[in-house]
Every structure is written in structure tokens, then in C-alpha cells.
Amino acid sequence: MLAALDAVRDPELDEPITALGFVSSCAVSAYGDAQVRLRLPTYFCAPNFAFLMVADAYDAVSALPGVRTTEVVLDDHFASDAINGGVAARAGFARSFDGEAVGELHELRADFLRKAVLAGTDLVCRPLAAAGVEPPALAALTLGQAPASPALERLRQRRAELGLPAGDDAPLLIDPATGAPLRDDAVPLHLRKARTTRVSIEANAGVCRGMLRHRYGTSGLGEEEQ
To answer: Which phi and psi angles does 36 have, rounded to 5°?
Structure first.
């Protein structure tokens, strides 16, 4: 079950909820009844982010062979009742927060994926730039021509999730909103945005890890030590 939860990410931080320490427990009975308990760095973490993680955890565990029922419980959050009840009822975000939410969270998820693509672009391009590859040469590279690395594979995955070009012949540098290749003169600004986005995500992840550690003082299941 923990391996299935590895595929569930914090949408803002683009890291698995396991690695972040958000999974406090998970177990499945001999009858296939699964229960997952999640925790977050603060009592007031954004409820839309929290809802996405609880819903994604529910889907990941429910898809496992042999699981008959699934319960995902978010503890110690001001909206725990609405989130836990809404996910269990498969009600969606808008119905779970009836009168407070105006729609579902598809566009929010897409916005975070676009940021993940930008951050991933920085991780792939920085070593190339440090090695002397100039912006026009970066703009001419395809994903298949970039050096293989975990960062490149992660970038391909995030682009594929957004429906953006992710094959070997796809340009390395694209507009994450449209998938269009970048012009040479747009590359320097694009790389600065990518670096800023990557630094912002990593800084937020560091803050969240510190707050979680201060709040609970124990490691989560599958948590990566930093």
C-alpha cells in the first residue's frame, strides 16, 4: 500500500506524500479493508490542496488488487470533516464544500503541473548551461538529445500528465501552457522563470518539512530524511 501512496504527490510541492512525511499510518485487513491516515504541516493548510491529496490517496489505494473498501482520514485539519466525508462519498470538491467552493480542482492541478514542468526544465537545463550550452543551442535540443537523468525522466512524466509533447523528438524547451517551442530570444527569460519556480517549490518544501517535524516530532511512513 505504501508503494501505491508513493504515486500520490503534494500538488504544490510536486513530491510524494510519503517522502514528505504526510502518511502517518496505513494498513489493510485480511478482508481487504484499507485505512490510511494522513497529516499535514499545519491545521490550516489550504483545503483544496488537502482535498486533492486525500482524493488521490483514496484512488491509489482503491485500485490495489485485493482492496475491498478504502478509508482515508486526514487528521488535525480544520476541514477534516468536509474533506474526509466528501472523498468517502465521492462527492467532489464543490459538493464537499457546498456554498463555499465554485468548482472542481482540475485547473488548479494543471497550474501546479505547469509549475512542475518549469521547475523540471531548470533541473535539466542548469547542468547543460553550466557546461557552456548557449540559449540558442538549448532551444534547438530535443528531449531525446538531452543527457539521460532522473530529472529528465521526471520532466517527461510531468509533461505527459499535462498532455504536452514528451517524446524523444519533442523540443526540450516549450511553453508549459501551450506546448509550443520557444523562440531563441525567449529562452533567457524562460530559464529565469524556471529557476525561480524551482527555487520557490524547494523552499516551500523545506518550510513544510520543518513545520511538520515541529508539529508532530515523528517520522511518517516512507518519509525521506533531508
So the answer is: -125, 135
Nearest to 74, CA basis, from 95, 101, 98, 51 = 51
Task: Give SS3 for 60.
Answer: helix
Task: Give the span between the Cα atoms of 128 and 9, in whole angstroms.
Answer: 28
* Angle formed by the axes of helices 106-130 and 150-161, nearest 10°: 150
- Give the residues across from 191 on adjacent strands: none
| Residue 226 pLDDT class (50, 70, 90 cuts) | confident
For the stretch 17-42, pLDDT in tens is 999 999 999 999 999 999 999 999 99
Q: Which residue has the cell 466528501?
A: 86
Beta bridge partners of 73: 37
- Measured from the Cβ of residue 56, the count of other Cβ atoms closer than 10 Å reads 20
